[in-house]
Design a protein that fits this description.
By secondary structure, the protein is α+β, with helices and mostly antiparallel strands. It folds into 3 domains: 205 residues, HUPs (Rossmann fold), CATH 3.40.50.620; 75 residues, Uridine Diphospho-n-acetylenolpyruvylglucosamine Reductase, domain 3; 127 residues, Phenylalanyl-tRNA Synthetase, Chain B, domain 3 (3-Layer(bba) Sandwich), CATH 3.50.40. 39% of the residues lie in helices and 22% in strands. The protein contains 14 helices and 22 strands. Strand 5 and strand 6 form a beta hairpin. Helix 1 packs across helix 7 and helix 5 packs across helix 9.
Length: 458
């Protein structure tokens, strides 16, 4: 399982009714005693295919009942949602589906969502990204583990092997008729392009594309880390909503790093929702060569070149940090793409943890044994209540920010760590009073808020 699952994990398996997802559910069910995991199944009816989708749901219900697996099943009118969102059917379905996974995982306390993507899916994704002109990040395809929460244990397995597994164990499955319609690019790649490449050019094309994806992900990870170090070198200053870069120093670096540094600076200013494409970055670097210019970017961010400086600026009031929620990895690091921040955690013996009062404002120490369930990190939401350290009383998080004179436009960018409905830590401010370290504390959880490059905030 590539260390995707640890003993004691609560795992939500996404089950559509297709061969890959039902095979994965069967495998996890066979493993749950050995790994001491608590397994749930999750099924979402997108209401795209009428009676066919209802039959998918019934099959999943029957399998969950037969295998004695708790099932969470929902119906969401995705076609209606598409009219409001103006997304494509595939984009809208994916957005709704992952929202369902996140809300269900929180409801049952799951720290892992297991999905049935396999090697053929990876090959198709790499080809699609290549057709669309993706860079090395896109060639990395589908990550086997994403955000520490989404795991794909079957990424090294072929579709035919999965179907053989279902046959060997007499596992019924459904075939989505829309997968046979060549109106969709992915279906054309699966049904036409990939068989052509395998038949005329390389019979091991799926394996080759999976190797390419693995190499691309590793090199992409290295270049991102390298870009973080270069950004420190070229950054003249950083202010609220602005990063200023020295073009003279940036010019010393190769084009591959220049592009990544500019993209990273844009993400730091605008959060993870600002993902400038190649054309945006190319226009910025072209303007930099002319020593003047302005480029508008997604999410209310703009790049302004003035003489020897590149300023990445967020226009106040034009962009809000979208709501996000991720399981906090303990111990480990959790990256928050919406803000460009990272929270690192570690477990310490109380005797060697030090005095919490000596920590900077971006660190917190809490009593680990007072945490009754999984931890989540999220953007603030209406009605959040906190019991600030040292008070014992409760107040709305909104009032907490007002009392500390936190500007309204900055509040959504502050990560909140919660356990159930209780706030454990307002990152950069204080932990909740109940979770404080006392003389009777034996084990501590240390949390630290850092920028994406793993440098503590000033």
């Amino acid at each position: 399982m590539h260390r995707m699952i640890s003993p004691g994990d609560v795992v939500l398996a996404g089950v559509s009714g297709g061969p890959d997802s039902v095979a994965l559910l069967h495998i996890l069910n066979r493993m749950k005693k050995e790994y001491s995991i608590k397994l749930y199944a999750g099924h979402l009816n997108h209401m795209f295919r009428g009676a066919e989708a209802d039959a998918d749901a019934r099959l999943v219900e029957d399998l969950a009942r037969e295998w004695e697996i708790p099932l969470i099943s929902e119906r969401i009118d995705v076609p209606r949602y598409l009219k409001k969102s103006r997304l494509s059917p595939q984009e809208g379905a994916r957005e709704v589906r992952y929202r369902f996974f996140e809300s269900t995982a929180k409801k049952i306390g799951a720290s892992r969502v297991s999905l049935g993507h396999h090697a053929d899916d990876q090959a198709e994704t790499v080809l699609i990204n290549l057709i669309r002109g993706a860079g090395i990040t896109g060639l990395g395809g589908i990550p086997p583990v994403r955000e520490g929460m989404y795991i794909r244990p079957l990424m090294c397995v072929r579709r035919a092997q999965i179907e053989d597994y279902c046959k060997a164990f007499s596992i019924p499955y459904r075939v989505d008729s829309s997968n046979l319609k060549t109106v969709y690019l992915r279906n054309r790649v699966r049904l036409e392009l990939l068989p052509l490449l395998e038949g005329k050019y390389n019979p091991a094309m799926v394996t080759a594309l999976n190797h390419l994806a693995e190499i691309a992900r590793e090199e992409d990870c290295y270049l991102e880390e390298r870009a973080g170090g270069v950004l420190k070198d070229v950054m003249e200053r950083r202010e609220d909503g602005k990063v200023v870069i020295s073009l003279a120093i940036l010019e010393r670096y190769p084009a591959a790093l220049k592009r990544r540094v500019v993209r990273l600076a844009c993400r730091k200013v605008g959060g993870g929702a600002v993902l400038p494409g190649y054309q945006h970055i190319d226009r910025i670097l072209e303007a930099a060569g002319r020593a003047s210019g302005r480029v508008e970017l997604p999410g209310g961010v703009k790049a302004v070149i003035r003489y020897s400086l590149l300023e990445i600026i967020k226009d106040e009031g034009t962009f809000k940090v979208p709501y996000y929620q991720y399981p906090l990895q303990v111990p480990g690091t959790t990256f928050l793409p919406e803000t460009g921040l990272t929270i690192s955690t570690g477990v310490l013996d109380a005797g060697g943890a030090g005095n919490p009062r000596s920590f900077c404002r971006n660190e917190a120490l809490v009593d680990l044994e007072k945490l009754a369930g999984p931890l989540w990190v999220h953007r603030r939401k209406d009605g959040d209540i906190i019991s600030p350290l040292g008070t014992g009383g409760k107040m709305k998080l909104k009032k907490f920010f007002i009392d500390r004179k936190v500007p309204r436009e900055e509040r959504d960018a502050i990560p909140i760590v919660s356990c159930g409905n209780d706030i454990v830590w307002v990152a950069g401010f204080c932990p909740g009073h109940y979770f404080r370290v006392t003389e009777s504390t034996r084990i501590c959880l240390h949390m630290k808020l850092m920028e994406e490059s793993f440098r503590a905030l000033d």
